[in-house]
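Chapter summary example.
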Amino acid sequence: MKLFGSVPSPYVRRIRMLLADTSYEFVNLNIFAEQDRATLIRLNPTRKIPMLVDGDQVIFDSGLIYRYLCHKLQLPALSWPQENQIILINAANDSLVELLICQRSGFDTNDDKLFFNLQRERVAEVLAVLEQQVRDQAFNDWNYAAICLYCLLDWIAFRNLWPLGSFPALQQFLSQNQQQPGVASSDPRQAG
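The structure predicted for these 192 residues follows.
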């Protein structure tokens, strides 16, 4: 199996952490560099990462990759509450990706514009819900949902995308899980 993605991507990192004890090849792509972008376009018409190549099978999107790996590696399926947790995590992650791309494109994402306002509102609300879920011990087990939450929170901290000071349970969750399998080896701060 080959996993294509970039080191900083939280969507890629969640799959890398899931595969921490599995043999696979990680192909690090800089999706904004011409040669790596050509590779991405050739393999994945969505032009998004991660993607997994397993023989003749090419799987797009971290959610679908997770389902594929569950079947292949006989991992436990997600419960409906865990599926909902991942939807929340993805919503915040997607909004933050959109805001980051807009910032890198020269837009002031603090402007009072509908698109920016909607993204900021979504992130704030989702983080508040996740804060409560962590307080309610919904992420006590280290499973795929917890991995996804960890990757979101660490990416927020790594990119300095959102102030986490008003979310003490999320900060504690992040701190308590730094020794989990795959966390250190996938840390974007360690990339050369």
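To summarize the output: The helical segments are 10-18, 34-43, 62-73, 80-104, 114-135, 144-159, 168-176.
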